Amino acid sequence: MSNIPAELKYVSSHEWLRLEADGSVTVGITEHAQELLGDIVFVELPAVGSNLADGEQAGVVESVKAASDVYAPIAGEILAVNGDLEATPDLANSEPYGAGWFFKIKPANAADLDGLMDAAAYAAEVGA
């Protein structure tokens, strides 16, 4: 069974979001997603400074099994990306909620977080 931290928000495309003290939002893929993908061998991240719409492709994850798009779970400006993933993409497998984060985004509208799934709703979505 996947680990689904209670303090995070989730979207059905299997990204998690953590609201930071400075108002930015850290985004990564869930443990469930990385389990489905298998060993991640390559990660493509969005460009810092780019503005993404809610649901827009933000990057790509390639594993030994498949390639999968990563989406912006909310609209906003990309503030930072996790450069460590380029050198060590398997961080998304070993630490999906920690060192394996993908990008930080400045929300266009902070209220967008309110409509996202909590841990219980995401667990129900993935059958955990």
TrEMBL record:
Positions where N6-lipoyllysine occurs in the chain: 65
Keywords from the UniProt entry: Lipoyl
Claim: Ligase is one of the keywords in the record: no
InterPro entries in the record: 2-oxoA_DH_lipoyl-BS, Biotin_lipoyl, GCV_H, GCV_H/Fam206, GCV_H_sub, Single_hybrid_motif
Cofactor dependence: (R)-lipoate
Pfam families xref list: GCV_H (PF01597)
CDD domains reported for this sequence: GCS_H
Signal peptide stretch: none
Residues annotated as domain Lipoyl-binding: 24-106
Cofactor binding summary note: Binds 1 lipoyl cofactor covalently.
Family statement: Belongs to the GcvH family.
HAMAP family attached to this UniProt entry: GcvH
Subunit structure: The glycine cleavage system is composed of four proteins: P, T, L and H.
Chain's role: The glycine cleavage system catalyzes the degradation of glycine. The H protein shuttles the methylamine group of glycine from the P protein to the T protein.
UniProt-recorded name of the protein: Glycine cleavage system H protein
